[in-house]
Amino acid sequence: MVFASHAWGQPVKPSDSATPVIAKVELDGAARPLGKFQEQRARQRGEDPKPTPGSRLQAYLAKPEGDGPFPAVVVLHGCRGVSALESQKLPELLTSWGYVALSVDSFTSRKAEDACVKEPASVDRVADAYGALSYLAAQPFVDRNRVGLLGVSMGARAVLAMAERQVSEGVVNPDNLTFKAGVAYYPRCGVLADKTMFPLLIMVGSEDQWTPARACEELVAGRASDSASVDLAIYPGAHHGFVEQDWVSGQGFKVGYNAQAAEDSLRRAHDFFDRALKR
To answer: Which of 47, 102, 107, 236 is the most exposed place for a label (fewest CB within 10 A)?
Structure first.
């Protein structure tokens, strides 16, 4: 379904005035299984083939008051690394909506900086997200069967990738943990296959020069009949970065915060997660 409207709702406010405690935690990204050639080479050397371990990562964890178990959302930052949006605003909002929030920092421990031109080869967003899922599944206050994803820009591209079944099969996942829904803010939409294994909400600005809305419209139109749902919201007059208040310059593209689009998009994200993770 495609939404493109000039009608905006009321400003988004946390449903609970209490400010949650946001704790910095560490976790391991998921391991990657060796390919057949790598396994063969290891055996030739007399070694026992073992998966490639994931990286040690930092993350920001926030939870609602109470024992739970609560549904949860893994947050994936954009190409600039973790900003106040991922380390504070989104965890606070998600917690006020009744979700545990785990915002993963894929750059700091790897000493990676701005990756808006080219993401470092050492950064594995899929393994990072599944490591976060495994971390959440081990927490007694999390319902491991109700975990979603929220990605911004480059992180949103990872959300789309993980909606494809073959991508999830490329990590070591002994408990067969799965994500149940994904929200993607202005991703590069050309990377998604025609069938997804969990519902998606994609939100992009009509004036986005970096990740054009047209590609997202084509993605939605090309869905297979047995695919999970993919909803698309296109915000008139909005550019790339419309939900990020501190992003003022891009790589030759206009970027910038749009208060109306940001407020409406967060409301849509709230409603989407409630439908997908709380029913």
So the answer is: 47
